[in-house]
Design a protein that fits this description.
Chain B: Belongs to the TRM112 family. The structure holds two protein chains of two kinds. Helix content of chain A is 28%, strand content 25%. Chain A has 14 helices and 16 strands. A seven-stranded mixed beta sheet of chain A has the order 2-1-3-7-6-4-5. Chain A has a seven-stranded mixed beta sheet with strand order 10-9-8-11-14-16-15. The relative contact order of chain A is 0.09. Chain B is of the alpha+beta class. In chain B, strands 1-2-3-4 form a four-stranded antiparallel beta sheet. The complex binds S-adenosylmethionine.
Chain lengths: 468, 124
């Protein structure tokens, strides 16, 4: 057994940390016991009991939310306590890492929630080197072993206390996959749209869906394919559908600031090609999700998607209230008119789709927009064949957030029991007034909120554009 | 559109259509692209295929070659066979043409390799 210290990245998706950790433990068959209730989600540190260093490293292979892992040597409320623990450091650790004249090392001091002054840093370094007289050579860049004193002073924003809440000392083992986030960053992406999913969240979704090599993954609301890029990055073969011709064919207006029209190579396939993943591209098709185009069978290992919220981009399906007949001679150029596709229906269709088309054990991972003052777990759609695995909130503004839902297909779908095996929602979150409240609470004045709700313009979208 | 995808598609979503499978293919442009051979993936896909439909689809665009009409046994160790299936599923692409509903004759156009499975408002 070894005690491992996890240092998480600072994000606005704190609730996602433990679900990701649990998923990665399953994915890499690392035995993990977590006392979830005792962990304050705002605490960037977590201590785990793992069987080996190797297990720790396996957990880090795909993580986007864990920044680093350390072999924990000591942990205490005060520095003095910590130092006296280090003085009693076990022999085998000393022999392996301290009494090593042949090796290189460094000791780093970092504080969270407080800016340390250089003299403080030096003082701590001197103390540590006094207790642990490392015999190797100091090397700041890429040493054989890196040791860290990590001091936690509470959350940013609150008044900084003089004394730390907790101090840790450990040997660095491995960093997470922050370079993957950079590698797939949207800023460098060949083809993006207004609702492209950022690379960290896309990778996180692929992790939640436990996407692995040779899996078959589908995004039924594929857009610019950001989720497929992440899935293909995990070695999956990918396919998807979208109702919008321009999105799939890379035609029409560009979402980039300095560009009016989309260029010739702006499509999902070239996004995959950009990362050397074109061999994972199967197909994308123009289709309306309310009309299922797939031959019924447990086909997909995972379904990951960001459905249209009817807020950022219109939710629609093909149909018409009028009885306008289309002349089939002119079909080629006909753009079918659309009717509203309500959020409740979209999510119900999504769960029914997942129940039929996921392999048993396969995962459905999707985003659910919510108006936080009225949200309850009863708003989460359910299906007899699907069990809820995780439900984590990403706050977007004071009253608006979206929740990442992970479901697992645990029961086979049987056509004969179709009438029982249907998705249900015990408490519908998306009543008529949802749109109004959603806009209104996103900090938009009432008049404007009503207009936005009518025009289906997302206030958060504007916010995002300014940020990016 | 790859033949792997074609094998998974139906037009059952249309009003009055019972099975909608397999969709006919009338291709005006077919391309062959090189895709890394991955026997594990091919082996995973084979049980999900309707073998007969793959054969007839391949035949209808002139790519059947000497593919056996019946799925042979012990495919895992038959690299020769797996390579052929890989080629058909992953490397043959219909760039333009139509998919055709076997029951109604409704055409679903394929442009730039992307099938359009949308119906019109008077069809739903
Ligand atoms: C939130 S966006 C997905 C963005 C995508 N994750 C990306 O990375 O670009 C939702 C997509 O759903 C599509 N959509 C809307 N209604 C649809 C429907 N009825 N069937 C299929 N796709 C639809 C929209 O065209 C849009 O591209």
């Amino acid at each position: 057994m070894s005690e491992i210290l996890v240092f998480f990245t600072q994000t606005n998706i704190l609730e996602f940390k433990l679900p990701e950790l649990k998923t990665l433990a399953k994915l890499s068959s690392v035995p993990l016991t977590l006392n979830e209730n005792s962990h304050d989600k705002k605490n960037p540190f977590l201590v785990l009991d793992l069987q080996s260093e190797d297990d720790a490293k396996r957990l880090m292979k795909r993580t986007v939310l864990m920044r680093s892992m350390y072999e924990l040597w000591a942990s205490a409320k005060t520095h003095d306590d910590l130092y006296s623990q280090l003085a009693k450091c076990p022999h085998h650790l000393k022999a392996q890492y301290v009494q090593r004249p042949d090796g290189t090392f460094r000791v780093k001091v970092d504080a969270f929630g407080k800016k340390l002054q250089d003299p403080d840093r030096q003082d701590r370094l001197d103390k540590i080197l006094g207790i642990l007289p490392f015999e190797g050579k100091v090397k700041l860049n890429n040493p054989d072993q890196s040791f860290h004193l990590l001091e936690l002073y509470g959350q940013a924003g609150s008044k900084t206390p003089d004394k730390p809440l907790r101090v840790y000392f450990g040997r660095w083992l491995m960093d997470g996959q922050r370079d993957q986030i950079r590698h797939y960053h949207l800023q460098k992406r060949q083809y993006i749209g207004n609702t492209s999913m950022d690379s960290c969240l896309s990778l996180l979704m692929a992790n939640q869906a436990m996407v692995t090599e040779n899996a078959l993954v589908c995004d039924p609301f594929v857009g610019t394919g950001s989720l497929l890029v992440a899935a293909a990055g995990c070695g999956a073969y990918v396919t998807g559908t979208d109702i919008d011709y321009n999105v799939l064919h890379g035609k029409g207006k560009s979402s980039r600031y300095n560009q009016i029209w989309k260029g010739p190579d702006e499509n999902i396939r070239s996004n995959l090609r950009q990362y050397g993943l074109e061999h994972c591209y199967l197909d994308v098709m123009q289709a309306d999700f309310s009309k299922c185009i797939w031959r019924e069978q447990p086909l997909f290992d995972a379904i990951i998607t960001d459905p249209p919220y009817g807020i950022r981009e219109s939710t629609r399906k093909i149909g018409s209230d009028k009885n306008n007949l289309v002349n089939h001679e002119h079909l080629q150029n006909h753009v079918p008119s659309c009717t509203k596709y309500g959020l409740t229906d979209i999510f119900r269709d999504l769960l029914n789709f997942a129940a039929k088309f996921l392999k048993k054990g396969g995962k459905l991972v999707y985003w659910l927009p919510v108006y936080t003052p009225e949200y309850t777990v009863d708003n989460i759609p359910q299906h007899p064949c699907l069990e809820l695995v995780a439900n984590s909130e990403q706050p977007l503004s004071v009253h608006v957030s979206r929740r990442l839902i992970t479901m697992r297909k645990h029961l086979d779908y049987e056509e004969a029991r179709e009438s029982e095996l249907q998705a249900t929602v015990s408490d519908d979150h998306y009543t008529e007034s949802f749109r109004y409240r959603y806009f209104h609470s996103a900090g938009v004045p009432e008049q404007k909120a009503k207009a936005d709700a009518r025009d289906e313009q997302d206030p958060l979208d504007r916010e995002r554009k300014v940020q990016s | 559109m790859k033949l792997l995808t074609h094998n998974m598609l139906t037009s059952k979503f249309m009003k009055g259509v019972v099975k909608g499978y397999p969709l006919g293919i009338v291709a005006s442009e077919v391309k062959e692209v090189a895709v890394d051979y991955n026997p594990d993936f091919v082996c995973r896909m084979i049980p999900k295929l309707e073998w007969g439909s793959l054969c007839s689809a391949a035949d209808s665009i002139g790519k059947l070659g000497d593919l056996p009409k019946e799925l042979p046994e012990n495919i895992e160790s038959n690299q020769d066979f797996l390579k052929k299936v890989h080629h058909l599923l992953m490397e043959v692409e219909v760039i333009s043409g139509n998919l055709i509903c076997p029951e109604t004759g409704r055409k679903f156009p394929i442009n730039n390799g992307i099938p359009n499975m949308l119906l019109n408002e008077d069809e739903v």
